[in-house]
UniProtKB/TrEMBL annotation, chain A:
<dbReference type="InterPro" id="IPR011599">
    <property type="entry name" value="PFD_alpha_archaea"/>
</dbReference>
<dbReference type="InterPro" id="IPR004127">
    <property type="entry name" value="Prefoldin_subunit_alpha"/>
</dbReference>
<dbReference type="GO" id="GO:0006457">
    <property type="term" value="P:protein folding"/>
</dbReference>
<dbReference type="InterPro" id="IPR009053">
    <property type="entry name" value="Prefoldin"/>
</dbReference>
<feature type="coiled-coil region">
    <location>
        <begin position="21"/>
        <end position="48"/>
    </location>
</feature>
<dbReference type="GO" id="GO:1990114">
    <property type="term" value="P:RNA polymerase II core complex assembly"/>
</dbReference>
<dbReference type="GO" id="GO:0005737">
    <property type="term" value="C:cytoplasm"/>
</dbReference>
<dbReference type="GO" id="GO:0016272">
    <property type="term" value="C:prefoldin complex"/>
</dbReference>
<dbReference type="GO" id="GO:1990115">
    <property type="term" value="P:RNA polymerase III assembly"/>
</dbReference>
TrEMBL record, chain B:
<dbReference type="InterPro" id="IPR002777">
    <property type="entry name" value="PFD_beta-like"/>
</dbReference>
<dbReference type="GO" id="GO:0051087">
    <property type="term" value="F:protein-folding chaperone binding"/>
</dbReference>
<keyword id="KW-0143">Chaperone</keyword>
<dbReference type="GO" id="GO:0006457">
    <property type="term" value="P:protein folding"/>
</dbReference>
<dbReference type="GO" id="GO:0051082">
    <property type="term" value="F:unfolded protein binding"/>
</dbReference>
<feature type="coiled-coil region">
    <location>
        <begin position="79"/>
        <end position="120"/>
    </location>
</feature>
<protein>
    <submittedName>
        <fullName>Prefoldin beta-like protein</fullName>
    </submittedName>
</protein>
<keyword id="KW-0175">Coiled coil</keyword>
<dbReference type="InterPro" id="IPR009053">
    <property type="entry name" value="Prefoldin"/>
</dbReference>
Length: 156, 126
């Protein structure tokens, strides 16, 4: 029963059965940590994607001429106002830079961002499922090792 | 080495310090990477803009209008800086990893020595 398992694209093939219980636990712990980290990144990307989608909606629906809004002057002080320019918006493109864009361009910009994130998310999803597969295999081997070692105590 | 146990403990402490150092440097490396990505995407966005596009920079709570060329230069400078920082941090990571590896070997040697001594003592006592 020689189950060989490739542990990620970067590492060479190692026969898990040759590893000791301690080593296997260490491998499992490391894989768990990686998985945790990747899942967190996945959620963060999702959040960012939703934020951009919200922006698209706002650009589409929030730019009616003559629309009255409340402008925040401070956290607790608002003054009424109307949108003077419903054609153009200022888009945060990152690192503190804002660019004036037409509504259509802004939508394009956000759509590009969402698309990019979708690509990243699918890539990440593949990696996550690969990793969880690895974790499962390591767990299986670990369980077998523990069971066989408790059946024959103190045998190397 | 008068007291191998003590030496062993000291070395283990040094090893843990190295580990902590490594994780903080790795974290710095990750922060740099995300900054690099963000600046790259800004640069890409700039390159697709018209020359007369209105660019603003957020300074505190105020948006200040900026020239396109000026903004491009600023971002380019930042990218250069971040790239330099990344090579520097990577150098540091390599350095710490090497030190860690050396410590690990030293600790293992010392551990073997301690075990051997204990075995000898046990034989003498027997």
């Amino acid at each position: 029963m020689a189950s060989k398992e490739s542990k990620g694209p970067q590492s060479q093939q190692i026969d898990l059965n040759t590893l000791s219980v301690d080593n296997l636990s260490a491998v499992k712990k490391q894989l768990d940590e990686e998985l945790e980290h990747l899942t967190q990144s996945f959620q963060k990307l999702r959040q960012a994607q939703n934020k951009f989608k919200e922006c698209i909606n706002t650009v589409k629906t929030g730019l009616r001429p003559g629309k009255t809004i409340l402008v925040p002057l401070t956290n607790s002080l608002y003054v009424p106002g109307t949108l003077a320019d419903t054609e153009n918006v200022l888009v945060d493109i990152g690192t503190g830079y804002y660019v004036e864009k037409s509504a259509a361009d802004a939508e394009k910009f956000y759509n590009g961002k969402v698309e990019n994130l979708t690509k990243n998310l699918t890539d990440l999803e593949k990696i996550v499922s690969q990793k969880s597969q690895n974790v499962r295999v390591v767990e299986d081997v670990l369980r077998q090792k523990v069971m066989s070692s408790s059946a024959q105590p103190q045998e190397a | 080495m008068a007291n191998p146990q003590q030496a062993l403990q000291r070395m283990t402490e040094e090893f843990t310090t190295l580990q902590k150092e490594l994780s903080s440097v790795v974290e710095a490396r990750q922060t740099l990477e995300s900054q690099l990505q963000e600046n790259r995407s800004v640069q890409k966005e700039f390159s697709g803009l018209d020359d007369d596009a209105n660019i603003f920079k957020l300074i505190g709570p105020v948006l200040v209008k900026q020239d396109k060329s000026e903004a491009i230069m600023a971002v380019g400078g930042r990218l250069e800086f971040i790239e330099a920082e990344i090579t520097r941090t990577e150098e540091k990571i390599k350095n710490i990893q090497e030190k860690q590896e050396k410590k690990k070997i030293e600790i293992m040697q010392l551990q073997n020595m301690v075990v051997q001594q204990q075995q000898q003592q046990a034989q003498v006592a027997a």
